[in-house]
Amino acid sequence: DHTVPVPWTPVKKSGGKYTTLNKAFTFGKGPFPATVKVDGEDVFKSGPAMMLNGSNITWSAPVMKENTGDRVVFEGTGKKGTFTFRYRTELWFDGMLKTDIFTDGKDAIKSLKLGWKVPAAQAQYLLNPLFTPWGGKDGEKLSLPYSNAQDFMIWTMGFEKGVCFHPKSQANFVNRKNA
Question: Distance between CA atoms of 128 and 9, rounded to whole angstroms?
Answer without folding.
Answer: 29
